[in-house]
């Protein structure tokens, strides 16, 4: 009887684990599904990056809500399961944080938000591995991202063809953006890399679909829509990411099949495709005059090689031809749309000039971006010089904005615009954190692509690799974007999509399939796991409350800034301003100048000068420099004002207010 009772109890435990596993997946779906639809609702804001954007703080609230609920479920499910892959990510975070030990104290407040973001992403990824994902679950998560991309494409078309309504509903300014739509992301390249990720999902789903004709047709139409949208954005990173997805999936479609155990990747094709994409990007930078022609030749040659590589598989070749034809159709309609588009589109002149010129109908869109390429080359030179100045330890976390002008001056170069990021995550980490942080970054990449030979892992037995391997490839557009800009700081939805792709690409089971054998330490480990889950749940609930209050404060600051800092929330508490601390601090001291115009109290100016002396050690802001110079002149400190004027002129050489002072 005792044996039968033990068997029944084990079966009951297994059934409970399966039920909780499905329940966790239901929680994940129930929160992410409405989010990917509602994220396209525009919330008024003043631009920027990080938590100054409403979309980003809403996304972090969603991620915190998911982490809170999953951690709460894990308390009754035997505690947290921690994989070796996640421990690698934890080690990467520790190495990325280690440079705080030698970072100047004045820069630490500026470095903490970035480290908090990495920690939040790590916690969310830990909660995701508590969810059991089968093949259907992986497909559902990818379908959510695909649906979000399709909605983004619709929003981009709305901005392109109805710019006046888009300006009223989404804040889109056609003249400022030179006609380039940006969806909800407020930056065309962000839309480009996001759409490229969805395009890759559509291509792979199309190659896997064999039976349902209507679904294949819908996926082809979605591909046409996404390529058309990418052409409208004229985003090089988006187009290169889409081509990378198309070529790699076309080259791997015959190697990755459902329910396969051993994966044989044709590395020759992969190497060739990577070389082609790198050549396309290099041509756009180094040979802008002939970039479009050479890009077209390289693209057609790669398409031909993909078709030739599958010459013995007629069904697959038909699918490849259809996918390539979808690209051609989208490009054709784009060219027709541009030639027959509205005349008189006002387009801003290159950097440093606020005037606009008018491009008549029939003008060719700019896919080369010569001015942008030259500016990126200058940024690259300055960043490499900064690395040379501090090759091992770096200049300290949060110090790039202040140290970059110094590096440019040592090269005899001048800044063409205010730079806060080198537009390359690897160089950014190296410049600020040194070699230790670079090792941490490579460990983070290892965390994303772990393990390399998934098909030969023991944990892969009986697991469908037809979604696991493509999920790793689908990360490439966002990671490629991180080498050209800083998308993960500007868009939390990109970070969320990347974390979901990492989870889809994890081949090992999220929780053990069997009930652990009784050991002396099993009860202790279970209690520790449950205690950890309970603490994590409480922490996430606290974070969720802080984010919600920060979202409210963000709306108040936006309204105040739109009306000249009137109705400024002076008595706000620390809990309300912790997510908006830098912005709130800046606005609060900018309001002091308005108060001085009303009260003429000299102590107000003294308080502003004390604050600015610390602020200018961290940031370079032309408005703050201008205000401090005027205050010092007003107080009779002409020598100090002249010193600051010269310093500001070296940082902002094109700013007329710093060239001469009366």
Percent of residues in helices: 55-70%
Q: Main β-sheet, in a few words?
A: 2 strands, antiparallel
Q: Supply the number of helical segments.
A: 25
- Alpha-carbon distance between the termini? 99 Å
Strand content: under 5%
Reading the helices and strands in chain order gives HHHHHHHHHHHHEEHHHHHHHHHHHHH
Helix/strand-derived category reads mainly alpha
Shape: globular
Strand order of the largest sheet: 1-2
Layout of helices and strands, plus pairs?
Blueprint: H1 2-38, H2 54-75, H3 84-97, H4 108-128, H5 135-161, H6 163-170, H7 188-208, H8 213-233, H9 236-252, H10 267-286, H11 291-309, H12 314-339, E1 345-348, E2 356-359, H13 370-389, H14 400-411, H15 425-449, H16 465-474, H17 476-482, H18 487-490, H19 492-504, H20 522-562, H21 574-577, H22 581-599, H23 602-618, H24 622-634, H25 638-651
Antiparallel strand pairs: 1-2
Helix pairs in contact: 1-2, 1-5, 2-4, 2-20, 3-4, 3-15, 4-19, 5-6, 5-7, 5-8, 5-19, 7-8, 7-9, 7-17, 8-12, 9-10, 9-11, 9-17, 10-11, 13-14, 13-15, 22-23, 23-24, 24-25
Give a quick rundown of the structure.
The protein has 25 helices and two strands. It has helices at 2-38, 54-75, 84-97, 108-128, 135-161, 163-170, 188-208, 213-233, 236-252, 267-286, 291-309, 314-339, 370-389, 400-411, 425-449, 465-474, 476-482, 487-490, 492-504, 522-562, 574-577, 581-599, 602-618, 622-634, 638-651; strands at residues 345-348, 356-359.
Can you walk through the features of this model?
The chain has 662 residues and is mostly helical. The protein is 68% helix and 1% strand. The chain has helices spanning 2-38, 54-75, 84-97, 108-128, 135-161, 163-170, 188-208, 213-233, 236-252, 267-286, 291-309, 314-339, 370-389, 400-411, 425-449, 465-474, 476-482, 487-490, 492-504, 522-562, 574-577, 581-599, 602-618, 622-634, 638-651; strands at 345-348, 356-359. Strands 1-2 form a two-stranded antiparallel sheet. Helix 3 packs antiparallel against helix 4 and helix 10 packs antiparallel against helix 11 (291-309). The termini are far apart. Residues 258-262, 343-362, 452-463 and 510-522 have low confidence and may be disordered.
């Amino acid at each position: 009887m005792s044996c039968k009772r033990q068997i029944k109890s084990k079966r009951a435990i297994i059934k409970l684990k399966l039920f909780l596993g499905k329940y966790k997946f239901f929680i994940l779906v129930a929160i992410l599904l409405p989010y990917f639809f509602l994220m396209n609702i525009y919330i008024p804001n003043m631009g920027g990056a990080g938590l100054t954007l409403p979309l980003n703080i809403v996304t972090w609230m969603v991620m915190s809500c998911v982490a809170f609920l999953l951690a709460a479920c894990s308390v009754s499910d035997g505690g947290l399961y921690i994989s070796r892959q996640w421990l690698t990510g934890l080690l990467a975070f520790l190495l990325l944080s280690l440079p705080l030990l030698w970072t100047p104290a004045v820069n630490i407040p500026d470095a903490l938000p970035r480290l908090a973001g990495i920690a939040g992403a790590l916690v969310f990824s830990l909660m995701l591995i508590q969810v059991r994902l089968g093949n259907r679950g992986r497909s559902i998560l990818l379908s959510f991202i695909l649906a979000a991309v399709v909605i983004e494409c619709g929003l981009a078309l709305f901005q392109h063809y109805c710019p006046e309504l888009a300006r009223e509903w989404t804040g889109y300014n056609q003249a400022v953006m030179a006609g380039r739509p940006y969806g909800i992301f407020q930056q065309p390249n962000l839309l480009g890399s996001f759409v490229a990720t969805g395009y890759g999902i559509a291509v792979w789903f199309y190659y896997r679909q064999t039976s349902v004709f209507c679904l294949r047709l819908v996926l082809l139409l979605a591909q046409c829509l996404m390529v058309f949208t990418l052409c409208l954005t004229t985003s090089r990173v988006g187009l290169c990411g889409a081509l990378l997805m198309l070529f790699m999936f076309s080259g791997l479609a015959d190697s990755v099949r459902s329910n396969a155990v051993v994966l044989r990747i044709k590395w020759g094709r992969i190497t060739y495709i990577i070389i082609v994409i790198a050549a396309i990007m290099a041509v756009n930078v180094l040979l802008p005059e002939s970039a479009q022609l050479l890009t077209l030749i390289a693209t057609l040659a790669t398409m031909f090689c993909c078709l030739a590589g599958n010459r013995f598989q007629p069904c697959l070749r038909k699918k490849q031809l259809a996918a390539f034809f979808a690209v051609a159709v989208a490009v054709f309609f784009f060219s027709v749309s541009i030639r027959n588009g509205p005349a008189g589109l006002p387009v801003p002149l290159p950097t440093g000039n606020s005037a606009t010129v008018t491009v008549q109908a029939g003008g060719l869109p700019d896919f080369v971006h010569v001015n942008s390429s030259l500016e990126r080359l200058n940024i690259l030179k300055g960043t490499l010089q900064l690395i040379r100045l501090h090759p091992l330890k770096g200049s300290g976390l949060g110090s790039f904005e202040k140290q970059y002008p110094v590096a440019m001056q040592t090269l005899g170069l001048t800044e063409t615009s205010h730079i806060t990021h080198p537009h390359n995550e690897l160089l950014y980490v190296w410049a600020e954190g040194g070699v230790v942080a670079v090792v941490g970054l490579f460990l983070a990449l290892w965390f994303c692509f772990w393990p390399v030979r998934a098909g030969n892992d023991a944990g892969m037995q009986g697991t469908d690799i037809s979604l696991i391997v493509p999920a790793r490839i689908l990360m490439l557009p966002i990671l490629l974007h991180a080498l050209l800009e800083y998308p993960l700081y500007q868009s939390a939805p990109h970070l969320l999509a990347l974390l979901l792709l990492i989870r889809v690409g994890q081949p090992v089971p999220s929780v053990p399939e069997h009930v652990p054998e009784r050991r002396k330490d099993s009860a202790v480990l279970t209690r520790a796991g449950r205690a950890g889950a309970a603490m994590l749940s409480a922490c996430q609930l606290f974070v969720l409350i802080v984010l919600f209050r920060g979202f409210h404060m963000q709306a108040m600051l936006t309204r105040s800034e739109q009306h000249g800092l009137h109705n400024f929330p002076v008595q706000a508490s620390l809990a309300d301003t912790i997510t908006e601390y830098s912005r709130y601090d800046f606005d609060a001291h900018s309001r002091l100048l308005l108060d001085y115009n009303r009260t003429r109290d000299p102590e107000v100016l003294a308080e502003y000068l004390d604050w600015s002396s610390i602020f200018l050690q961290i940031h370079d802001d032309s408005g703050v420099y201008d205000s401090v110079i005027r205050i010092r002149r007003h107080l009779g400190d002409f020598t100090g004002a002249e010193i600051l004027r010269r310093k500001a002129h070296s940082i902002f050489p094109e700013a007329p207010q710093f060239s001469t002072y009366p």
